[in-house]
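pls read this protein:
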Amino acid sequence: MAQNSRMGPDLLLKDIHLPDAVGYWPLAPGWWLLLGLLVLLITIIYLSWRFWKRHSMRRLAIARLDELVKLPEQQLAAALSRLLRQAVISHFPPDHAGLSGQKLLEFLDRPFAERPFTTGVGCSLLDAPYRVDAQVDTVALVALCRRWLKKLPPQNQVQRRGR
């Protein structure tokens, strides 16, 4: 009984205490990894969307070029000339909208070293749309227009330069 008196009645009647609940913070390493992968995925999706959006005008122009290839040879040169003018007007600053004739061809030659619009097959865009008997190498002209459209800078860069 002496032993029971040392413990006392208070020690025998105490409840069993459970440990505190596990908290959500700090996060386990697996959750940090998952959070990092989620941020990386969102960043990749956003950058892909921006890239797609910035190059949409180029894709539309090339798709239109693919449709124009089906036109008869007499109408093709005029349609290609209109397409390139539309691309210049919609893609470059407004001061380029008034370009026509030789000045337009010189502007189209800027990305090329060999000057294919003013001295090559591209010079047929000057008079072929207005001549019924014009002899044009349509395959080379379409290939040249496709090369020029593929060299269009992304839309945001053009707008920044124009301001």
Q: What stands out?
A: DSSP finds eight helices and no strands in the chain.
